[in-house]
Amino acid sequence: EVQLLESGGGLVQPGGSLRLSCAASGFSFITYAMTWVRQAPGKGLEWVSAVSGSGDTTYYADSVKGRFTISRDNSKNTLYLQMNSLRADDTAIYYCAKLGYKFETSGAGYWGQGSLVTVSS
Amino acid sequence: NFMLTQPHSVSESPGKTVTISCTGSSGSIASNYVQWYQQRPGSAPTTVIYEDNQRPSGVPDRFSGSIDSSSNSASLTISGLKTEDEADYYCQSYDGTNWVFGGGTKLTVL
Predict the structure, then answer these.
(1) Cβ(B48)–Cβ(B55) below 8 Å
(2) A57 touches chain B (CB under 8 A)
(3) Can you give B44-62 as a three-state secondary structure string?
(4) Chain B contact probe: residue of A27, A37, A103 with most B CBs at under 10 A
(5) SS3 sequence, B83-109?
(6) By C-alpha distance, which of A9, A12, A14, A75 is closest to A36?
(7) Cα–Cα distance between A64 and A47 in angstroms, integer?
């Protein structure tokens, strides 16, 4: 059974940093691309970032480019999102999701339960 | 920028059929796969359609997806509506660089 468990969310001040983790199990982690999607309170889904199975290729939404870094540790079956220079509009639930083999041609097959990030002073 | 436009809300009675549209702003929506996600209140999204018209295991065949190139749109059709289908539905595709989500459609089953 595929399981994705996010952690690392919390309250952070504007300008601060936070690292989210997503522990994966139930599938061959290295084989699949992974992605982060967020949802601000009362709003729709917004794509944030994605990474290839090997970790060699990364993708970012313009809204987070230069501030967020996606990475993965295939030896630990874990996906990360390092978030720096956080702003109030980064406040959201952050979901990790398992993709297919390639980010460009696949959607999310499985989703985690999400981790809430609140940016406020 | 490529955008996907969905109706804000739709409503229908139990047992009926509803179709939710997702219209691409430019280019050809058929150029990249469209996915549909269901999100019930307070829950994470789940996938109900991938690669335009494929159902993940466990998703009932009451859910179907299609592409209409003439209107540059994708559609999610839910037949035999049940109260448990009441949720927000999002379409998603790829614009050559990034993922793009539609704004979401709130389905009310009443």
Answers:
(1) yes
(2) no
(3) CCEEEEECCCECCCCCCCC
(4) A37
(5) HHHCEEEEEEEECCCCEEECCCEEEEE
(6) A9
(7) 10
Tell me the pLDDT tens digit for each residue of B99-109.
999 999 999 99
Q: Do A107 and B45 touch (CB under 8 A)?
A: no
CA B76 to chain centre: 5
**Residues A51-66: tens digit of each pLDDT:** 999 999 999 999 999 9
Residue with tokens 């047992």: B15
Token pair in block for residue A14: 């504007």
Task: Using DSSP bridges, classify how beta strands B73-78 and B18-24 pair: parallel, antiparallel or unpaired.
Answer: antiparallel
Residue at token pair 């499985």: A110
Chain A residues closer than 8 Å to B50 by CB: 106-107, 109
Taking an 8 Å cut-off on Cβ atoms, the answer to whether B51 and A107 are in contact is yes
Confidence category of residue B28, pLDDT binned at 50, 70, 90: confident
Whether residue A49 contacts residue A59, with contact meaning beta carbons closer than 8 Å, is answered with yes
CA A91 to chain centre: 14
Nearest-CA distance from A30 to chain B in Å? Answer: 21
Which residue, A36, A31, A3, is CA-closest to A115? A36
Look at B44 and A35 and tell me if their CB atoms are within 8 Å.
no
Q: Sign of dihedral through CA atoms B74, B86, A3, A12?
A: positive
